[in-house]
Design goal:
- With about 280 residues, the protein is mainly α.
- It folds into 2 domains: about 1-55; about 65-275, no CATH class.
- The protein has helices at about 1-25, 30-55, 70-90, 95-110, 115-125, 130-160, 175, 190-215, 230-275.
- Helix 6 (about 130-160) runs parallel beside helix 9 (about 230-275).
- The model has no long low-confidence stretch (mean pLDDT about 90).
- Keywords: Membrane, Transmembrane, Transmembrane helix.
Length: about 280
């Protein structure tokens, strides 16, 4: 119990720290924004603690199938931290911020080719946007998208090469997939494969669909502005992280379906062998 509680406390503090990073790193944050950030970080820390301290799962998937959630958290934390440091370099430049800005600029310009997600994000901006805003968005989008691609590649390596999650012992579907009801009806394999394909397809399409939807909605609503560093950091982080997280979830569910399929084959083979020996 002590180990579970200490782990839940540590996870809650890390989540709160990640949310507070833009407010701590980027200068010039207003008092209202700081208070809102502290409140959101506190609520997120409490929710994380309750989730990981409870014996029974509630909403967090793959809670006991490390390092799925750890990899996603590290990817989001890295994105938020690097974008915060780049935004800080605009007012308080240092060697580190200048280096990160240069690397981000190179990555953003490299990925900014026709019909790429980064190009669509840049085209999402209003026509009268200043060149500095366009360059900041391109840099943030390119860097965050590269981090998300790296996280997906690492998780695919864990699944295909290292055999996640079977290398960690037995896999409990109820604990790791609390929102998935195996008794809801229909074959479990069919439902897992269907959900996996839906998640992968949506994860692939979202980086392209979100800028297009925002651009079309700009005629009816106020166009999105990314001049505020806080807005830029969280918008680009969410734009890159959410699709990557959905693709990783789809890969994970496909892996679970394959494990159940293999287990069924072994069970059927053992049953046939017992019938032959009987």
């Amino acid at each position: 119990m002590i180990a579970r509680m200490s782990g839940a406390v540590m996870r809650g503090l890390l989540v709160a720290l990640m949310i507070a990073i833009p407010g701590l790193v980027v200068p010039g944050v207003s008092m209202d924004a700081s208070q809102a950030t502290v409140l959101i970080a506190l609520l997120a820390a409490i929710m994380t603690f309750i989730e990981y301290n409870a014996r029974s799962p509630s909403i967090v998937e793959f809670r006991d199938a490390a390092p799925f959630n750890r990899l996603r958290f590290v990817a989001l934390l890295t994105t938020v931290f690097l974008l915060s440091m780049i935004c800080r370099g605009k007012t308080d430049p240092t060697l580190l911020t200048n280096a990160l800005t240069s690397v981000g600029t190179i990555i953003g310009n490299s990925i900014d080719f026709p019909y790429s997600p980064v190009r669509l994000v840049v085209l999402m901006l209003p026509q009268d946007s200043h060149d500095s805003i366009v360059q900041s968005v391109r840099t943030a989008a390119g860097l965050s998208y590269l981090i998300s691609l790296t996280a997906m590649a690492m998780f695919l390596f864990l699944v295909r090469v290292l055999g996640w999650p079977s290398r960690n012992g037995s896999f409990n579907v109820w604990v790791n997939l609390p929102l998935f009801d195996p008794t809801a009806g229909g074959d479990v394999l069919y439902r897992l494969n269907r959900d996996a394909r839906i998640n992968i397809a949506l994860g692939f399409l979202l980086p392209f669909l979100i800028p297009a939807v925002v651009k079309m909605a700009a005629d009816l609503l106020n166009p999105i502005t990314l001049e505020n560093p806080q807005t830029l950091i969280w918008t680009m982080s969410a734009w890159a992280f959410l699709p990557a997280s959905m693709i990783m979830r789809g890969i994970a569910m496909q892996r679970i379906a394959d494990m159940i399929k293999d287990q069924r084959k072994r069970a059927y083979a053992n049953a046939d062998a017992d019938m032959l020996l009987a």
